[in-house]
Amino acid sequence: MKLYFILISGSLKSRMQYKMNFIFSMVSYGMIMAVDFIMLAAILRRFDDVKGWDLYEVGLLYSISSIAISLYRVIGAEVHDFERYMVNGEFDSLLIRPVSPLFLLLTRNIDLSRIGGAIQGLIIIAISVAGLMKTGKATLLLIAYLPVAVLTGLIICFAVGVLTAALAFWTEKIKDFQTFTLYAPFTAANYPMNIYPGLLKIIFFTVIPVAFMNYVPVMYLLQKGGEWWYLITPAAVAGVFLTFSLIMWHIGIKHYHSTGS
Amino acid sequence: MIYWLLFQKSFLRNMQYRLAHLINNAASAIFGFVFMAVWVGVLTGKESGSPYSIQDMVHYIGTGQVFLWLTVFLTAGLNIQNGVRSGAITMELARPVHYFSYVTVQEAGRIAYNLLFRSIPIALVYVLTVGFYVPENAVSLLYIFISAILAIFISLNLTYLVGISSIWTTEISWAHFVLITLLFGFGGQLVPIDLLPKPIYSIVALTPFPCVLYYPVMMYLEKAAPHVLLIQASWAAALTMISFWVTNIARSKIEIQGG
């Protein structure tokens, strides 16, 4: 852990050489996500709800999902950009170090400019909880569970990120897969799963289990259905999915052949 | 002729990646399904209070996904920033072709590629699944064509201005994200701008962003009056003048050193 912080502080110092760019990037990433939510608010202001979920309820789903993916982009910047290591042949340099390549990737770069998305998510969570309090729907259990949901979401997102990065050992390029595995599912997870047709629902509960990070526990916490174990299942799913992605990552490394010279 | 050659080369360069792009199209179609599902969820049982039916919104989102690849998803800064960073822009500005045309015609080649390998396949996915609107009037086809060309031209100008700003800022990724956000939000990608609250709508309508996505989509769905073409044409003319003006300032700022 000490090594992690030493490497991270080095990465941060290099980033802070361009302070204005950092600030502008942070604000703009936050703004992108905020505009999405403002548009959703505009719809629900006019039409009240989406299949029984009002603005504040959807706001909870939306913010958990957007904080999770933003934090992943902060800590997993190089995992997300792993294609570069394959295409430029930079992965060899990670293999000759006495530390695991995944650990090295995590320490190489922290993209703090993405934290803007998480801050925007926190603001939406605050607005949503305040709105739910007025109607008596925000219980202590719900508020206490929110950090757990964000952490579960981060683990699921990180696992999907590693799994997609592992594809690069076979395909080299992964940017187009990321739209499929990360952007589309996490956008879908901004909204309640009951709006999706069968096939999409199956994908979001199994292949890319984003439904577990917010929809499943929040549904129970807002008394829209489910049982107490809806609060435990997400952590179990996140654990299993992370293990699976790490196994695939190691299989990928064994399969890896350098391009040579 | 040189412009036609640049257009062709850009088209052919993109052809190298068509398999990856076809995979990406599936994701793009899924995005569309997600937004359609949101609207179906919102409008179910409430269609009477809405100017749009569920079917209208399914068509609106589907057409929007198709137009995104023509008018919104342009190359960030048209890659002008790379030339600024490497210094190659000095040679590009010195060439006997206008820099604005030199850069935008290459992007136009990519847009032509996107039409064939991104927009049409995505439209086909919707034809086979949720349905895709087909214009009924022959004259609409002419309006749609003009509206789409103007939308592309406006978007090329906006992206060009972001790119050329790199001469002063070097880094444009944040400016690109801001532009994309405005094109999505004010362009009506998820919400038709006439459904926005009045105060927001009156501001959005004064910007060029609805010209890039909302107007061409509404024109395709035969829900826009022909006069929106005038709004688009005005913005296209104004932005072109600004692009030319900024290019001249940029040219005077560039110094070529060495010897």
Automatic annotation (TrEMBL), chain A:
<feature type="transmembrane region" description="Helical">
    <location>
        <begin position="115"/>
        <end position="133"/>
    </location>
</feature>
<feature type="transmembrane region" description="Helical">
    <location>
        <begin position="228"/>
        <end position="249"/>
    </location>
</feature>
<keyword id="KW-0472">Membrane</keyword>
<keyword id="KW-0812">Transmembrane</keyword>
<dbReference type="InterPro" id="IPR010390">
    <property type="entry name" value="ABC-2_transporter-like"/>
</dbReference>
<keyword id="KW-1133">Transmembrane helix</keyword>
<feature type="transmembrane region" description="Helical">
    <location>
        <begin position="55"/>
        <end position="75"/>
    </location>
</feature>
<protein>
    <submittedName>
        <fullName>ABC transporter permease</fullName>
    </submittedName>
</protein>
<feature type="transmembrane region" description="Helical">
    <location>
        <begin position="202"/>
        <end position="222"/>
    </location>
</feature>
<dbReference type="Pfam" id="PF06182">
    <property type="entry name" value="ABC2_membrane_6"/>
</dbReference>
<feature type="transmembrane region" description="Helical">
    <location>
        <begin position="145"/>
        <end position="170"/>
    </location>
</feature>
<feature type="transmembrane region" description="Helical">
    <location>
        <begin position="21"/>
        <end position="43"/>
    </location>
</feature>
From TrEMBL, chain B:
<feature type="transmembrane region" description="Helical">
    <location>
        <begin position="57"/>
        <end position="78"/>
    </location>
</feature>
<feature type="transmembrane region" description="Helical">
    <location>
        <begin position="21"/>
        <end position="45"/>
    </location>
</feature>
<feature type="transmembrane region" description="Helical">
    <location>
        <begin position="199"/>
        <end position="221"/>
    </location>
</feature>
<keyword id="KW-1133">Transmembrane helix</keyword>
<feature type="transmembrane region" description="Helical">
    <location>
        <begin position="174"/>
        <end position="193"/>
    </location>
</feature>
<keyword id="KW-0472">Membrane</keyword>
<protein>
    <submittedName>
        <fullName>ABC transporter permease</fullName>
    </submittedName>
</protein>
<feature type="transmembrane region" description="Helical">
    <location>
        <begin position="140"/>
        <end position="162"/>
    </location>
</feature>
<keyword id="KW-0812">Transmembrane</keyword>
<feature type="transmembrane region" description="Helical">
    <location>
        <begin position="228"/>
        <end position="246"/>
    </location>
</feature>
<feature type="transmembrane region" description="Helical">
    <location>
        <begin position="115"/>
        <end position="134"/>
    </location>
</feature>
